[in-house]
Structures are given as C-alpha cells and as structure tokens.
Amino acid sequence: MSPGEVVAVGGHESDGGRALRGLLGPRVSCVSGGRELFRRVSALRARGEPVCVVPMTLGRDPELVADAARSLLALSAEDRAGTVLAEPFGTADHLVGWLRAAASRVAADKALLVTAPSGDPFVDADLFRIARLVRQYGRHRTVEVALIGGDPDPAEGVRRCRALGERRVVLLPAAWVTPRVPDPEHCEPGGPLLAAPAVAGVLDARVREAWERHDRLGDDGLSRGLRAAHDHGHAHTHGPGGHAHTHGPGDHAHGPPHTDESHGSHGPHGPHTHVHGTHHDPRTHPHGPDGAAASHRGHRAPDGPPPPHHRADAVAHRGADPHLLPSHRSPR
To answer: What b/e sequence results for 94-111 when a residue is b if at least 16 CB atoms lie within 10 Å of its CB, and e otherwise?
Structure first.
C-alpha cells in the first residue's frame, strides 16, 4: 500500500460500507459518504496524514464518486492539499469480467442468478445488461437477475429460474452485499465476488495511481470525481439546434472513438469523429461503400402523388420541418 492513510467509502452496493469491513486490511478505514467521510478525512489530516479516498463502487454507483468529491471539496484548503480522490474501485466493464470469472467456477448445469442491492432505475437496468454479457460469453444456459430490496427479489429470481426448468440455482453477487439464500433446497451462495487478497491488490493499485497523478500532474481527482455522475440519468435534448441523446450509465457511447483515418472521408467538412459501439446503429448512421457517412438529411420522398391516406393536417415526421414537433413533445 502507498504511504499515507486510505479511506474506502461505500454506497448502496456495500450497504454503506458495512459489507466491506471483512474484506479490507487494518490500514484501511471504511466509511459511508457525506458527513462521515468528511469527519474521517478531517481527523486524519489533523494528524498530518496524507489521505487517499477510494470510492468502492463496482461500476453501478456513479453518484458515490461525485458525492465523495463534493464531501472533499468541503475540506479546508490546507486539508485538501494533502488529500486525493482515487479512481473508483471498479467499472461496469471490470464487473463483467469479475462476474465471468466467478461464473466459470460454477458447474454449467446450474443456473446463475446475478444479485445486487437495488439502486435507481438506471443502475438497475444496467445490471440486466451486465448479466446478459455474462451469459453471452459464458457457458450457462440461464442467467437471471435479482435485486435485493427491489423487484424481482432473490426469491422471485429463484422461482423464475426454476420455472425455466433449472434444478439448481447459484446466487452470484454483483455487489459487495451477498443476499441470504431464499430457498436452500434449490439454490446456493456463489459469493463473495472477490476474495480479500484480490480486493487488496486492486485497492493498492487505485491508491498508487492516485498519488502518482498527484505527484506528476498536481491532479487531486476532485474535478474528475465531480463529473462522474454527469451522464447518469434521463434522456434529454439540448433545445433548438441541439442534438438529442441519452445520458445513461457510462458515457454517450460504448466503444473506442475513431476518425477518418480508420474508415475514409466524411465529406468536405473535414474529420468527423464518432463512436462505434452499442449506440452506433448503421441504420441511423450508415456508411457508404467508400466509408463516407450517409447524410442525415438525405431522405428522398418517393416520386408521384402522396398515398391516399396522407393528410395535410397529419403530424409531420421529426425531420420534415424544424418548426414542427412530433406529437409526443410539448412546444417549447
């Protein structure tokens, strides 16, 4: 572990940090966010100790990171000078990898029930995406999801697996919290997700990286932490002339960006950067044979008169006239 004190801050994935205490070493303090984090760091800084705070999310609690940054900003300038905020313990991509490793240790003839405490609708929805990836790249026929304190809960999740014909179900935690076994006759625990030595190794890496960034760049991690939850939430638009997109867990898209160099020119406007991933649909952003992107305004109406059912007072298509709004949107 790097010099100084380490404070692990837990959120809903760890029941406010309570589920972490048996996994952390004696040199690591474990707190919930907000005032408890502020008081702990203030006390450590009063003793002259440098402090590294690590948000112990597994990728499903971006608000935990932002909340930790806000709490640290409330410190005095002197205390902030010796405090850094590390990158989150894990990301959703890490969680997929850890779950796949755990699933590989479960016999293929058993069903997997991926469990985690219920969060907001967006992180709960993302858990279904994560479970789908575990199934896609694994060897288990049935991979279902259960939300501790939510719907479906673990008992209902086991019933669903049984209804699909599975004889035995393994509860695979996608959080620090592990659920109680609701039906011991038909299911068994499959956790914890990570053993204490693995947790210590990842934690040490996050702390070391945080101090290296601070020493090399003067970066205490607070600005980055404040932006962690920026893209988390409802879809919205940017008003007239803006572009509509969805802000969900993670960034605007899920793949590495590339420019003209990788697939040809995008016309006279110069380089055009975009992302190929989950949100890049060739039906909405097609590429021509030469690699150029097709125009978004190039839809051509069929020749001849409009069909008989076409009415002049019908609601126009979204792209037909910038001054007409689809029927499901209110005028601004």
So the answer is: ebbebbeebbeebeeebb
Q: Residues 214, 257: one domain?
A: no
The closest alpha carbon to 56, from 247, 206, 233, 222, belongs to 206
| Residue 57 belongs to a domain | yes
Question: What six digits make up the tokens of 270?
Answer: 């110069």
Q: pLDDT at residue 162 above 90? A: yes
DSSP codes joined into one string, 137-184:
TSS-S-EEEEEETSSS-HHHHHHHHHHTT-S-EEEEESSS-----S-T
Hey, how many other C-beta atoms are within 10 angstroms of the C-beta on 243?
7
Q: Residue 228's pLDDT is what? A: 86
CA distance 88 to 122: 18
Do 134 and 77 belong together in one domain? no
Q: Are residues 31 and 146 in the same domain?
A: no
Range of the domain at 77: 5-91+195-226
Measured torsion, CA atoms of residues 146, 150, 152, 153, in degrees rounded to the nearest 10: 60
Q: Is the peptide bond before 152 cis (omega within 30 degrees of 0)?
A: yes
pLDDT digits (tens, 9 = 90+) for 118-127: 999 999 999 9
From CA 240, how far away is CA 254, in angstroms rounded?
26
Contact partners, residue 121, CB within 8 Å, separation at least 6: none
Over residues 10-14, the mean pLDDT reads 96
Rg (CA), the chain: 25
Supply the mean pLDDT for the chain: 79
How much is the pLDDT for 110?
98
Measured between alpha carbons, how far is residue 139 from residues 24, 128, 136, 215, 295 in Å? 32, 17, 8, 45, 42
Query: What is the per-residue pLDDT across 255-269, written as a single tens digit (0 to 9) for each?
Result: 443 433 333 334 333
